Amino acid sequence: MKLFDSVKKEKLDFIPKKENEVCIYLCGPTTYDDAHLGHARSSVCFDLLHRVFIALGFRVKFARNYTDIDDKILKKMKESGRNLSELTDFYIAAYERDMKALNVLDPDFKPRATHFIREMISLIAHLQKQGFAYVLEDGVYFDTSKDKSYLSLSKRGLEQNITRLENEVAKKNESDFVLWKFDENFYDAPFGKGRPGWHTECVAMINSLFNEGLDIHAGGIDLLFPHHENEASQCRCANNYELASYWLHNGFVNINGEKMSKSLNNSFFIKDALNEFHPELLRFYLQSSHYRAHFNYSLEDLALSKKRLDKFYRLKQRLDLKEFSDFDKNKIYSFESEVANRALKDLSDELNISKALATLDEFIVEANLELDKEPKNISLKLDLKQGLEELALLFGFGFLAWNEYFQFGVSREQKELIMQKIQERNEAKKMKDFSTADKIRAELAQMNIVLLDTPQGTIWEKNNA
Ligand SMILES: [Zn+2]
């Protein structure tokens, strides 16, 4: 496996700390609002990484945290009149629904910051004792000048390095950051009642879940500075080891060429996108360009992705394939099909998704040609099924029965109505009343429903083109 390390800024061979095991931590969402496409892209890209490591036979320990205490959450609590756990439980459940829809594998650990307060307090107390922290009137601060390797991650000059987001108190250095904010409403601590700073949360959780640091720390490129820089600095000073061997960062999501942001009012909730587009299509699209590249969301590109995913399901249709099941993390995997091994090799080159998707496209074209030549060849069909099944595991899409995929966007009531119309049409056909049968077909066509008469009976799909 080759990875691009965003600290060393080069492609490196991945060497795990422990043989055949990889520990990955992905900075997760702050749970005060619904998740947007930026969250979706980060989750989907690093889910692809998760899948590649499973397919390579690694034991993967994957953690993604929830920041469930934070200034933004407190603000939302005031606005909504909901208490902390009501609010954060609500958004965590919503987030997990979105992730499930996008076929993101459930992480092995989903630590919530509020469940690790004791660990955060002991980390801060330790840093204070070692002389890395000092107290001001509004909190405990980290003294960045005490860490000789500060800024070794982001390679920033100190002059660029002003964290204007912090309250302007008399910090010793402009880059110093808050470890603990004094607040009468929160947790008891030896240095005073309060709550943790964001940068401390992740480090304390990583230290509790993993021994001696991570193989891979991942997140959006906007987190490299200050969040990851500050996480790494605390770990270095508290533990004398580096927080992670490799740092991976995904690019921004732009909407029609502009950076997505709340202030520009062009941020897109996953749940809204899922109302319009099939979740597997959204996943396909979000991972179709390289994770480090900035992603430009556009309907034209989404339509192109749909064509490609449709082809996957048309092949499933030709082979009449039902649902596939996803990875079972209790098993060790080793792909058998040539195509999945080829795609895995493509992705092992720091997630070269374009090459892997080209391998998929080529496989589908060839499969269709072979089926044209030998439509009754059972062993060919079994080989193709094996290939598709393993490709679904690797890419995280293509799990559904083909007809379920092509019926996307039809409500349960509509489905009942369609079934009833098909029944009526069958009866009309039996009575040789072809004009009624044609009328029903035309009526359904008006609803964008296409009927296909097969030897097994009439099936239908929605024309989503
Ligand atoms: Zn973090």
From TrEMBL:
Highest taxon of source: Bacteria
Provide the residue positions that the database annotates as binding ATP.
Answer: K262
**Which residues, by range, are in coiled-coil regions?**
none
InterPro entries in the record, alphabetically? Answer: Cys-tRNA-ligase, Cys-tRNA/MSH_ligase, Rossmann-like_a/b/a_fold, tRNA-synt_1_cat_dom, tRNAsynth_Ia_anticodon-bd
Q: Which cofactor does it need?
A: Zn(2+)
Position of sequence motif 'KMSKS' region: 259-263
* GO terms under biological process: cysteinyl-tRNA aminoacylation
The transmembrane residues are none
List the Pfam families: tRNA-synt_1e (PF01406)
Q: What is its main location?
A: cytoplasm
UniProt-annotated location(s) = Cytoplasm
Gene Ontology CC annotation, any one:
cytosol
Q: Where is the tRNA synthetases class I catalytic domain?
A: 16-306
| Location of the motif 'HIGH' region | 29-39
As to how many cofactors bind and how, the note says: Binds 1 zinc ion per subunit.
What interactions and quaternary structure are annotated? Monomer.
Similarity comment: Belongs to the class-I aminoacyl-tRNA synthetase family.
- The protein here is known as Cysteine--tRNA ligase
What organism is recorded for this protein? Campylobacter sp. CCS1377
Question: What gene is behind this protein?
Answer: cysS
